[in-house]
Fold this protein.
Amino acid sequence: GRKFPNRIRNRNKEVGHSPDRPIRNRNEVNGGTRSGPEPPARRDPDAPTTLAAPTLAPMSRIAIGADHAGYDLKQHLIKVLGRDGHDVIDLGTHSTESCDYPPICAAVGRAVRDGEAYVGIVLGGSGQGEQLAANKVHGVRAALCNDLYTARMARAHNDANVLSMGARVVGIGLAEEILATFLGTAFEGGRHARRVEQLMAIE
């Protein structure tokens, strides 16, 4: 028969390892004289995502609203936010029955404007109309973010205070990452603060 296992044992002896202890990583070659980090552990795909620590302090109260297309994603994100210690204001809708999104998204925007919430989230099929509706409320800077880059830039450069996503565009996993990025990114200020002031002056 083949002696492949014996060759493995002999190679372990050559580099100073016990035949009963296989080489664990390449850093152990030559008697372990080289050091380095262990390979990262594999993430359980079924494990819930933990949101990044928020930088919009104090980010404890978040208003959220969705139409029928965004209802399921809204319910999921409410659980994620609640698990991470956020106080969530659910402004509807409360079922998958067809409804109009403008009043719901405007209510989220008003909650942010009036200080009832520190940030808002609006959800729909594409997120386009929801963003437009929220932005009709003076003081709201709603950003449509269906990817991680726009979520980061919305906060870092635009000081966005309402996040819009399309439930028919992003999956649950990506939606969690977008939300974590949005909450965990700080506004950079500087030249961007001047530009945000100019945006708000247009109102």
